[in-house]
Amino acid sequence: MSKESSKKRVILFVVLVIVVLACGLYYWNAYLSKTKIDLSKNMTVHYIGISGLASIDYVDYHFDEETTNRYQKFLQSVSYQANKSSHLSNGESITITSDYNHEIAKQLNLRIVNTQRAFKVSGLPYRYKKGTEIDKSLLTELKNQAFAKLSANDHNDGEDDSFSYYGTYFLKHQDFDSFVLIYKADHHKDDVMEHSSKYYYYQVVGIDSTFNKEKIGKGKYVVSLDDLEYEGHDVTNETVIPLALTHLENYYASEVTKID
Question: Across the chain, which distance is largest between two alpha carbons, in Å?
Fold first, then answer.
């Protein structure tokens, strides 16, 4: 082997060593020496509103206490954008893209990965398609409360109203739904039946999948209680009840269905 050939091999070896060292140094500086922060792994999306009308409330980035304390300045710089943030429905897919202060990340020697993540919207309360979907035991609870309130509001100077349950209707409005319990009041005076067919309503607004016995028990719902009227007159004929409910409390109902 000639000296010239040996010299070339030595030079080639030295060049290869330099290249390997340079690549190793670059890899160390770019990856191994930096602290990795995975934004998507620790991301949680919080929603507000009902399915179909829900919006993103806020996005959480969860890290352990040590990371949070050490890199608080960086974490405070993190923000997000969503490809869709309103009128969200259960089952819909959205994409969250995180952004951050790159200068702060560089100062803290951080390597940020996975800044984008897809989520399937779930867990939103939803409106019932039909009133019959609700647990029937809830109607029993509502009947008890409605009857109690009707009796408590019966002030007729010693005269008595005898209330009897007529039925429950499910009303679909544009942005919400409601139940309306109808009661027939027989008015008594000196043993004479004066108003045998006057009707009262007990409307529960905001019926959705979150409506339960706890809400009923704690009164966590909006209630209206009054005489049922149609075109300015008391409803005394049961055939007029669906018409009266269509515009109850000035809220137009596109569907009025008797469910009980």
Answer: 135
With a threshold of 0.85, does the pTM exceed it? no
| Domain identity same for 136 and 115 | no
Identify whether residues 79 and 139 lie together within a single domain.
no
Helix (H) or strand (E) holding 245: helix 241-246
What is the DSSP secondary structure assignment for residue 133, as one 8-state letter?
A: G
75 and 187 within one domain: no
d(CA 153, CA 241): 21
Quote the CA–CA distance of 64 and 41 in Å, as a whole number. 12
Domain of residue 46, residue span: 34-120
Question: 92, 120, 148: which is the final residue of a domain?
Answer: 120
pLDDT digits (tens, 9 = 90+) for 181-235: 999 987 766 555 554 568 999 999 888 998 888 887 777 678 888 889 998 888 9
Distance CA 39, CA 115 (A): 6
Residue 9, burial from CB neighbour count under 10 angstroms (0-12, 13-18, 19+): exposed
What parts of the chain have a pLDDT lower than 50?
25, 27-28, 30-32, 157-158, 195
The answer to whether residues 108 and 136 belong to one domain is no
Alpha carbon distance 74, 36 (integer Å)? 13
